[in-house]
Amino acid sequence: MTKEIEKHIGSAVGLELKRAKEMHGSFNSSHEAFAVLQEEIDEVVDEIEAIAKLSRRFWEAVKENDLDDQEQALRCMKVRAEKLMIESVHAGAMVVKALESVSEFKEGQNG
Questions:
Q1: Which strand (E) or helix (H) includes residue 78?
Q2: In this predicted model, what pLDDT tens digit does every residue of 43-71 receive, in sequence order?
Q3: For residue 29, what is the DSSP state?
Q4: Is 28 in a helix, a strand, or coil?
Q5: For a disulfide at 33, which of 38, 73, 78, 98, Cβ 3.0-4.6 Å?
Q6: CA nearest to 40, candidates 92, 2, 77, 3
Q7: 73 and 61 in contact (C-beta within 8 Å)?
Q8: At residue 66, what are phi and psi to the nearest 5 degrees?
């Protein structure tokens, strides 16, 4: 199952990379690549922090035996987990785009 998921993630990263390159082309500099990649990483971290907060909310609801709040916390966690996956795909695509751009910069120096 893990290999199948990895294949789907790789496809999603490839699709996002294609979309990003069609919209914005290659990075113009390593500084630009860093800034864009950092923005994507920040978005991943934001989602992880939101999930962690919701996990604490879920635990409090478990301790209070509040099934309604447990359910609500878990529903919110599901939404944030899906957003996390999307943001992770964006970050992965920007890593590949940055790697490709750095390779182009190196070729330009050597050419």
A1: helix 67-110
A2: 999 999 999 999 999 999 999 999 999 99
A3: S
A4: coil
A5: 98
A6: 92
A7: yes
A8: -95, 90
